[in-house]
Amino acid sequence: MYYPINLKIDDIKVVIIGGGKVSYRKCMNFLAFRKKVVVVSEEFIQEFENVKDEIEIIKDSYNEKYIEDAFVVVAATNNKDVNHQIGTYCREHGKLVNVVDDGELSNFTVPSFVKRGDLLLSVSTGGKSPSLSAKIRKDLEQVYDEGYEEYVNLLGEARQRIINNTEDIKKRKKKLKELLNLSCEDLKRIARDTMV
Question: Rounded CA gap, 181 and 20, in Å?
């Protein structure tokens, strides 16, 4: 069973082994969080050309030296034996590993997600139905549109003002709950009034 967690990846090394479509999709997931990754493969699909300045590409076959100092590893080659070898090494050395063709060897999965700035909504079926996860993600994209990025930022600013200016804990909690009933326009107005 998987435990949901958000991982701060700013200061950790992420390595993807493989240069195919699955590897590219995994790479794009990390880039959505502004994380530069290392991708190792003898061959790469054409799409990698589009992101070559945002990642580190190593044209070589798999070698343990490429993942020794990595914290997160994705084994996404088209060779099941190599993926198994990567997964085994990572498990033995306390690394987070996602083996794309072996859920049992993986110790993490990447859920489908909707990202709107700091708002992150993720959906997982534990690998049982990726298509259901994708369907739910598409539904969430409709409900939580691009406007939520600004809304979350405004909520964060208003929350901080309330925390800074309200000493009484009960009043603070009440005010924080009331924030959720405000629209984006209401929050903008409050921010303008506060600045004046």
Answer: 46
pTM of the model: 0.83
With CA atoms as reference, report the closest residue to 158 among 195, 130, 127: 195
User: Nearest-5° angle of CA 152, CA 158, CA 159?
Assistant: 85
Encode pLDDT of 4-13 as tens digits: 888 999 999 9
At position 114, the amino acid (one-letter code) is: V
Q: Does residue 19 contact residue 30 with C-beta atoms inside 8 Å? A: no
Rounded CA separation 48/27 (Å): 9
Torsion-angle region of residue 34: left (phi > 0), alpha (psi -120 to 50) or beta?
Answer: left
| CA 85 – CA 88 distance, rounded (Å) | 5
* End-to-end C-alpha distance for the chain, whole angstroms: 52
Query: Any bridge partners for residue 123, and if so which?
Result: 112
* Structure confidence at residue 196 (pLDDT): 42
Reading phi first (left if > 0) and then psi (alpha if -120 to 50, else beta), residue 144 is in beta
CA geometry: angle at 34 spanning 30 and 39, to 5°? 45
Q: How confident is the model at residue 184 (pLDDT cuts 50, 70, 90)?
A: confident
